[in-house]
Amino acid sequence: MFGFQGFDGFQQRPTRFNTQYRCYSVSMLPGNERSDVEKGGKIIMPPSALDQLTRLNIVYPMLFKLTNKRANRETHSGVLEFVADEGKVYLPYWMMRNLLIEEGGILQVENASLPVATFSKFQPQSEDFLDITNPKAVLENALRNFACLTKGDVVAITYNEKVYELHVMEVKPGQAVSIIECDMNVEFAAPVGYQEPVYKKKEETEQEMAVDESDYVPDGFLAFAGQGHRLDGKKKGTDPQPMALGAGAMRRGIPNYEYKKGKMTFMRNVRRPQNNHQTEEDDEFQPFTGEGQALRRKGGRK
């Protein structure tokens, strides 16, 4: 079926693998749950496919082109194991959504040879992807479970028990590339629905932060907002401005020799009687002009 006669008389091995299978999601796989298959981009094929592939002169690693002819959709994948039931293949759920194929649909599988990737660009489908501290490291670790990438696919990766979907916007050097043992540059586009924050100038920000006191009308109690009243009946704000005292206005105070502990004395300025004979020189304080008193009288004892 796969062989043909060459011009040199020797039988040459065919190099194409092209078979149709019934397609199912990994959750339909008999046995224990295989959550590891959902975290990658590889499929599970039947043992007969391995027998046919070993007889072919195919290029390793094994890469396959998956086509849903009914919806005219295609993608690429690697193979994880050959343990599926005959006539069936099991795919990750995100890959079935890209192919628009239902459980039990007919899927065409053929081997493919893809160039090694050098560049890829992804667009997160949710703004939650921005919460990841180092997205490139997370993506690099997740892509270890993938064998190839196809432009236009929406791949799913798992991080901290949460699934993130990424749209493959661009790959180089072809529409589909192999990412096995490659040095690939990765870029990210803005997530779907993300809007860049609008930064305002410093002057506009200060104007918005400034509060006009005339427009501000507080509700309820406002502390220290009343008007004070003086005991002397004068209105607030009518106090005379303080003036510096001249040198001649300062006089020496007189101590209160009748002061007693616990007694309050209110001193009032009393006008002295005017003395016509008193001059301005007499009013001025003159130190050391008083009369001294001696404890012992002059002349000796009596």
Automatic annotation (TrEMBL):
InterPro entries: Ufd1-like, Ufd1-like_Nn, UFD1_N1, UFD1_N2. One of its GO terms (cellular component) is VCP-NPL4-UFD1 AAA ATPase complex. GO terms for biological process: retrograde protein transport, ER to cytosol; ubiquitin-dependent protein catabolic process. Gene3D superfamilies: 3.10.330.10, Ubiquitin fusion degradation protein UFD1, N-terminal domain. Residues 17-115, 117-191 form the Ubiquitin fusion degradation protein UFD1 N-terminal subdomain domain. Residues 271-302 are annotated as: Disordered. GO terms for molecular function: polyubiquitin modification-dependent protein binding. The keyword ATP-binding does not apply. Keywords: Ubl conjugation pathway. Pathway: Protein degradation; proteasomal ubiquitin-dependent pathway. Belongs to the UFD1 family. Essential component of the ubiquitin-dependent proteolytic pathway which degrades ubiquitin fusion proteins. The ternary complex containing UFD1, VCP and NPLOC4 binds ubiquitinated proteins and is necessary for the export of misfolded proteins from the ER to the cytoplasm, where they are degraded by the proteasome. The NPLOC4-UFD1-VCP complex regulates spindle disassembly at the end of mitosis and is necessary for the formation of a closed nuclear envelope. It may be involved in the development of some ectoderm-derived structures. This is Ubiquitin recognition factor in ER-associated degradation protein 1. The lineage of its organism: Eukaryota, Metazoa, Chordata, Cephalochordata, Leptocardii. The gene is UFD1L.
